[in-house]
Amino acid sequence: MSVIDEILVANEVYARTHELRALTPRPARKIAILTCMDTRLSIRTLGLKTGDAHIIRNAGGIVTEDTLRSLVVSHHLLGTEEIMVINHTDCGLMHTSEADLRTRIQNRTGTAAVSPAFFYAFQNIDENVRHQLQKLRTHPWIPESVVVRGFVYDVLTGKLREVKHS
Amino acid sequence: MSVIDEILVANEVYARTHELRALTPRPARKIAILTCMDTRLSIRTLGLKTGDAHIIRNAGGIVTEDTLRSLVVSHHLLGTEEIMVINHTDCGLMHTSEADLRTRIQNRTGTAAVSPAFFYAFQNIDENVRHQLQKLRTHPWIPESVVVRGFVYDVLTGKLREVKHS
User: Fold this and answer.
1) I need a surface site. Which of A22, A160, B27, B151 has the fewest CB within 10 A?
2) pTM, 2 dp
3) Residue of B73, B84, B165 to mutate when probing chain A, most A C-beta within 10 A
């Protein structure tokens, strides 16, 4: 049995007592959170519940064309007023480099690929967070009125630490 | 007090009993889930726990260059073997069009933007899911051995429904 088949069985059980029906597509707490796909992250660490926020996740918690798209939709269509960018310690993208990643995957698959053009590997996490904030703060469709703040989540302590704009 | 400040207070409380320290960056159940940023989605509906999966989320649950990047990293670096794509009923991107969205945001901000180039608005959800599966299945860095399956999550019933590859 594949994991997806196990999930389908679990979903059938869940649906018998589906308790999230009353939620709306507009985040109750008017916040969008951009963070990493990492296994160890949970909105529980932020005191948030399902329904409170838009959650946008990719490898690293990086501002890309795609995350900008999501954040623009979140603000302009669905009323979020604050954006929280959260990177985390021990991120897979910190233990590697663009060239290493590309070579490793080309060797595994025996083929090159044009896309993705970048992996967004990084060395300094504070610099990386500041760079994401800058990309948001300079986008013409993220108004000044939207609060944009950046953080590092420590996977060992469970604590957030703020990284100030440069 | 901003919502982010409230979250920082909640995180301090959370960190006192941080119970996720033992988790590893490799998903325990070797699965990556691509879904929407929507408020109403939770891994609880899938019977999953923090630590089980990579969770990748954007507006719509769309396969873009960025989500491909995340999925490639997930499989080749961190050992996931199955990919589940989940779109959902009542998605914000179903109630609009590319042109509508662009016009609306340009009018609100008083300025045009080059990026994002697309919003990935869609009308038919089954077709949309199939299109995402096709983008994954044809990428040179997603091997045939990786299971790729697509679903629609019904926000009213809490149930998943599979959409087969075309």
Assistant:
1) A22
2) 0.97
3) B73
**Is B66–A70 a contact, with Cβ atoms under 8 angstroms apart?**
no
pLDDT digits (tens, 9 = 90+) for A58-108: 999 999 999 999 999 999 999 999 999 999 999 999 989 999 999 999 999
CA–CA gap between residue B81 and residue A80 (Å, rounded):
35
Q: Which among A129, A108, A107 is positioned nearest to A120, based on CA atoms?
A: A129
Place of tokens 């992996």: A119
Burial of A85 (0-12, 13-18, 19+ CB in 10 A): buried
**Distance (Å) from the C-alpha of residue A134 to the closest C-alpha of chain B?**
15
Task: Kindly report, residue by residue over B34-59, the tens digit of the pLDDT.
Answer: 999 999 999 999 999 999 999 999 99
